[in-house]
Automatic annotation (TrEMBL):
It is found in: Cell membrane. It comes from Cyprideis torosa. PROSITE patterns: NA_SOLUT_SYMP_3 (PS50283). This is Uncharacterized protein. Keywords: Cell membrane, Ion transport, Membrane, Sodium, Sodium transport, Transmembrane, Transmembrane helix, Transport. It comes from the Eukaryota. Transmembrane segments: none annotated. GO terms for biological process: sodium ion transport.
Amino acid sequence: MSTEATPDLSTAVEEGQIDLVYLRSLFSWVDYVAFSVLLAVSAVIGIWYGVFKRQDTSEFLMAGRSMSTFPMAMSLIASFMSAITLLGTPAEMYQYGTIYWMIGFSYIPVMLVAMYWYMPVFYHLGVTSAYEYLEIRFSPGVRKMGSIIFATQMTMYMAIVVYAPSLALSQVTGINVYLSVSLIFGVCLFYTVLGGMKAVIWTDTVQVIIMYGAMLVVVIKGVIDEGGFARVWEINQASGRIEFFNFNPDPQVRHTVWSLIIGGYFTWIAIYGVNQAQVQRYLTVPKMKQAQNALWINMFGLFVLLTICSVSGLIIYVKYAHCDPLKAGTVKAADQLFPLFVMHTLGTLKGIPGVFVAGIFSGALSTVSSGLNSLAAITLEDFVRPLMNHFGHELSDQKSTKISKLIALTYGIISFCLVFVAEQLGDTLQAALSIFGMIGGPLLGVFTLGMFFPWANYIGAFVGAISGLLFTFWIGMGAEFYKKLGAITFEKKPMGDCSEMLGNFTTTTTLAPDVVEE
């Protein structure tokens, strides 16, 4: 540990001294209580619906198709606007500028197409698994193929969204990252397996409120500390970060209007059009009009959260304009920038860092609970029930519910193990988008083929899905391979090089999962 005197927090950044051991010491028992309350509330909701409410298979997987519009809309937001967004978007703005914000303009066509083209198909069929449609349209084999693709996608994605907040918690508190992972999965499995879909939706609602509240507190305090939004904008503009209308057609450019709006459309329509987790939520309300209204609320919520996260990235740059913590070695990954900023900005306000950590945890819990419930639904309906029917055994409702819970538990354990892979991926935002591009794209293609091309048959669906997967993996994995070789690089916006203050820098750093002090 450094033997230098601990700097005063209000001047630490200006003097180039960032002592992470000191910052971690600011995370007090009040903060632990603040985020522990979130975990307790989630557990209580699970107990309420699991113990005190009647629960059959329909209740466990579909909330009895009796939910109201607002909580379902909140659950739609929570399912895929996770800790990936809360940590990855500010880091994206800090390093590459505001161009990523343009992805928000893809939300409008996505919601329109989802609610008027895809949603009616599932709603009129009244399915539990979205992949039942593929059997009706093509064949049982295509249905099972779609389910396997989705299960692969979701288990990988859940691992990433758990690792990201665990890394954040490690950064601000020093708690081992694997302990955080275990805590998230433990609490999430508890209320998801015990309480079912209603518990998932209502905990999502609570968690979305915490997410928005935590982000707003950080942004408002940050803007005030940096002299107002006009000054934040001016400094970022001077550094070249304010950029919205880059129409460069070069595919080697990291983000352009074309890649964000067109690519963003296909990424999000794969989620809101045919993804099991979202389709399952649509069908928890009794009327399709309610589901469509929920999508409008969801769209507004997505755009607001994207904007809040984007502004936070601009504030982070103003805070560290003279000395980039990545260059200084204070943090090792861009996803750690936001937690570092929070401790500098709010570290002395007891309880507020805990609320921030609760917000990050909320993003992870909501995504994982949604994933587990949807995976239980497709595995029961697409594999277990058909297999039992094949052997002449009809599952009772009680057995179906028990099997669904066991399936959810199993997927949770598998995803927990995949966390050890997720920690090798680095950029969590890019990793999450890559997964949905490589796997979600071909799956979207199969559904679209069935719905809009009446002459297509099961052979075309099979060949199209497999060739699509091979092609997208070739592009996605190839891009990662060449980035590792240095053949593909993305130019970052100017960063402070710490040249004026390097001699004063305290480089006590955190290396997840173990704390390393120099």
